[in-house]
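Sequence in, structure out. Go.
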Amino acid sequence: MKIIYVTLMTLALTACATNDPYTGERKTSNTAKGAGIGAVAGAVLGGLTSSKQDRSKGLLRGAAVGAAVGGSTGYYMDRQEKVLREKLQGSGVRVQRDGKNIKLIMPGNITFATGSANIRADFFSVLDSVVDVIKEFKDTRVHVAGHTDSVGSDATNQRLSEERASAVKYFLVDQRVPAGRVSAEGFGERYPIASNDSDAGRQQNRRVELELESLE
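Output:
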């Protein structure tokens, strides 16, 4: 019963709710979620690796360590998300949070012209803002994914998506983001996020996505 009580208390303390600064909604922060998950995982590991006599102490110790690790990662990504939203406000880039990862969705109307892998000149300033954040948050890995609309053959679109992803990757590296932190991949027309039956939909599908992941 003591073990159950300690576990419940840990979860109650870590799963604190806050107001989302962008939507105003009451929700559990990602920091709290990370701490809660880490606490449970740490408690389980601590209980399993302790002797029967010391199991309660092992569970409590594991929960504390797990909460600290999980919470620190969540806090790191929370801060990074906040800075990205501030810098990219009004740029046309959509910032999407998914657990410990942050995805930057950059549609074709601000990135590449149809059939081109040359970054639009007016998009450089947006990428410069992203570079500033990546340099500030040095424990972040960046995966660049290229996508196209359905105009043209599958082979052409696959090649084009790879070239677009590589173009963004090389831009980041040229701006002194360590190459070991950046990877690139093309997916062609396989994963549309809008209908390819309209120009507006094709512009959304003709996109580059940057997924930011903590190295911790």
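Check: The radius of gyration is 21 Å. Strands lie at 17-19, 26-28, 94-98, 101-106, 140-146, 182-186, 208-214.
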